[in-house]
Amino acid sequence: MLKLIYLLSFAVLFLSCKENGITFPELLREYKQFRNDEQKGLEGKNINFEGLCSPLLATRFANLDQLKKVVQIEYYRDSSVYDIEANSESVVVLNYNCGQANVKKQLRSGISQTEIMNITKGSKNGQLNFIFKHSALVRERKQLEAVYRLARKKEEYYGSGDVAFYLISEATFRNINTPELAYLTFRDSLEKGYINTFNHITAQAIITAFFSEDLANIVSDLHERANMPELTTGLFSEKQLMDTINYPVDNYVDLVNNRIGQVLGNKIRECYKLDEYTVCTPELLCNILNKIEEYYMWSMGVGMEPFHSSEELVIKFSRKMNLVRGEL
């Protein structure tokens, strides 16, 4: 109950400052009230990464055939499930084995993130059909909106200089201090290399840790279906196969990395005993981000500088997390 009071009082404080904006020093002062005894003991917590696979980098694969040498990809039709047009669902199953660990990810055809965002523009009948067919998504709508806000900069809600998952991935990328070990090719240092891998794993780990694995999985599937519906059938056009921005290899790598992030997020949730009442202080978020970096160093053989709880990015994102979760 005390944590809930903290969240509510913090939301009130934010709303009172919203009109005139808020400065970074003011953010530092805001969080002093949260630096209580609960933050003691955050340091020194250990997570066992055994059972986790190493992340994949899309830049390490020249084409889909190369990826298939590392990740087994199988397609099938599920005749027990039909869509609204009476077509059986198409399904892709990815299997990634690395040593003693394994990642298995299934993606079914279905509604995408784009379709959900456009549903309010449709007819009343279309909206009713959506509610009937996707009742589970309707029940999760507030949580989905919360994650969407964390994934996008929303300065109109959270003030100038708002932060999002992608900015955390860029900061994690900048923390790499062993470029000679990290970048096997120049492409690894580009957006589709480490940054994209960090973005998917870190975001999925945080969503799982602070919300749930089920929600993280829903978000992952909605996003990848929007990027490329053909992922579940394998029926790609020549243009899709030759694309360098949105192409099958990149999306399949994202699916595998999303699943890795969810497993990592469950370990983080257990380690820090997170629940719906947990206040995300800068100290807590900093420790979580550094645990994620520990996983990257352990699995990828690179060196990284740690995050610090006094960093503007850490303070702003922890504050945003509290506000977003306080609205649920």
Description of the molecule:
The chain has 328 residues and is mainly alpha-helical. The chain has one domain. The protein contains 16 helices and 3 strands. It has helices at 2-18, 24-30, 64-68, 113-118, 124-133, 135-139, 141-151, 155-158, 165-174, 179-182, 191-210, 213-227, 238-242, 248-272, 282-300, 312-326, and strands at 71-82, 88-98, 101-108. It has a 3-stranded antiparallel beta sheet, with helices on one face. The longest helix has 25 residues, at 248-272.
In short:
With 328 residues, this protein is mostly helical.
Major pleated sheet:
3 strands, antiparallel
By DSSP (H or I, 4+ residues per run), the number of helices equals 16
Q: Cα-atom Rg, whole angstroms?
A: 21 Å
Order of helices and strands: HHHEEEHHHHHHHHHHHHH
- According to DSSP, the number of beta strands is 3
> Ranges with pLDDT <50 over ≥5 residues?
none
Q: What key attributes describe this structure?
A:
328 residues; 16 helices; 3 strands
Helix-strand layout with pairing:
Elements: H1 2-18, H2 24-30, H3 64-68, E1 71-82, E2 88-98, E3 101-108, H4 113-118, H5 124-133, H6 135-139, H7 141-151, H8 155-158, H9 165-174, H10 179-182, H11 191-210, H12 213-227, H13 238-242, H14 248-272, H15 282-300, H16 312-326
Antiparallel strand pairs: 1-2, 2-3
Helix pairs in contact: 1-16, 7-16, 9-11, 11-12, 11-14, 12-14, 15-16
